[in-house]
Amino acid sequence: MWDPGTQPFNSVITTFVFSVYIVSDSFGSNDHTSTSLSWTMALAGLLIALLAPVVGQWADRSGHRISTLKWLTWALALVSGCLFFVQARASYLLLGLVLLGLGTVISDVGSALYNGLLDEVAAGGKVGRISGFGWGLGYMGGIIALLVIYIAWIQPDVGWFGVTSANGMDIRVSMLFCAAWILLLTLPTFLILRDRPRTAGVPGTGLVGAYAQLGRSVAGLWRIHRGIVVFLIASALFRDGLNGVFQFGGPIAKQTFGFTSAQVLIFGIAANLVAGVSTIVFGLLDDRIGPRRVIIGSLIILIAIALAVFWLHDGGAKVFWVLGMAMCAFVGPAQSASRSYLARVCPQGMQGEVFGLYATTGKAVSFLAPLLFGLFITMGRLIGGGDNNQYWGILGIAVVLLAGLLAMIPVKDTAH
Predict the structure, then answer these.
(1) DSSP characters over 232-267
(2) Percent of the chain with pLDDT over 90
(3) What is the pLDDT of residues 230-245, one digit of tens each?
(4) 233 to each of 347, 358, 361, how far by Cα in Å?
(5) Any idea what DSSP says for residue 259?
(6) Would the pTM of this model clear 0.90, i.e. be above it?
(7) Which of 356, 378, 12 lies closest to 214, judged by CA?
(8) How confident is the model at residue 124 (pLDDT cuts 50, 70, 90)?
(9) Which of 94, 95, 91, 108 is closest to 44 using CA atoms?
(10) What is the spatial distance between Cα 146 and Cα 4, in angstroms, rounded to a whole number?
(11) What angle is formed at CA 41 by the lines to CA 36 and CA 46, rounded to 5 degrees?
(12) At what angle do helices 30-62 and 207-224 cross, to 10 degrees?
């Protein structure tokens, strides 16, 4: 329930609704708002890289993984609700970006702790299907949340409780809905799961001392579990590309293929549905053929589809519906299989720490997809001119996915 419970922060806030709202004309010029958003996400990525592994390590050693996750989840709900105060005015851009960046840090650090619990709740031989089921439920949660928001406030001129789009009120009320959703749906997680007692003989450590221990842990992983380090590097690359697919899918749909804002939201609902179903199905396949093969196969297909989006950019909305849905069918399985692989090879007692490193490495190169996306758009402008070169950015994402694919090839398969 934590997957679907926290999904609105990803699907509603950072992807299809609030992030589109914060870069709208109400907050300034397109270049200014987009650049400000990119710098905010870069700074958030840096903080996640610094915090995620040591928080995970501290939670492992102190025996407070569940309670730490609970407080982070409640903080995420609070930040989401505070987005209500971001009015559709340029003077509120900074507030919106600060809250969005803070929520991103909380969400990713919490996800690192949550992913580390996978081996505790999944019996042997079922890691893949449990990971896929959870991830798939997350997408389903995104579908329902997006549908409610669309029907209640985005689509009608006057929504529930008399809410209109004046001063961004329809978007702002949606943020209150997301906060309530996060609190209520994650409640079963914290009613059922309990902290395990700290392992006897393992000393606790403060967050400051955790950094020294982090260095020793990385060195130890390299000496004893070198394959984990190699996988962390590979996953950092391809996960950044996978995030780029969702992060920039909305702008490409709107600016290149002519979608309206409402159509982007409908596309987001369909995208979550396709991704959710495919992730659950591929979760079963994960246990049969192993997560490494699921990841490599998904990356190959995603690269091919990305190239098709570039070459067929003049095809209109129907083309993007087909290709976009095809991409969504393989993003989720690759993400789920990634955490499934790590859960299988993670040393006992190091789950929070290793998944903290997983979050850290994922953010260590999080600038790549946005950077290459922008660079390829600039290249397209230099080659073809004009102001609508958004579709060139998909090539930048394809490059990141290709780098992740090449880095994943030497990674050894794991027993499944």
Answers:
(1) HHHHHHHHHHHHHHHHHHHHHHHHTS---HHHHHHH
(2) 30
(3) 898 899 899 888 888 8
(4) 18, 9, 7
(5) -
(6) no
(7) 356
(8) low
(9) 108
(10) 12
(11) 125
(12) 80
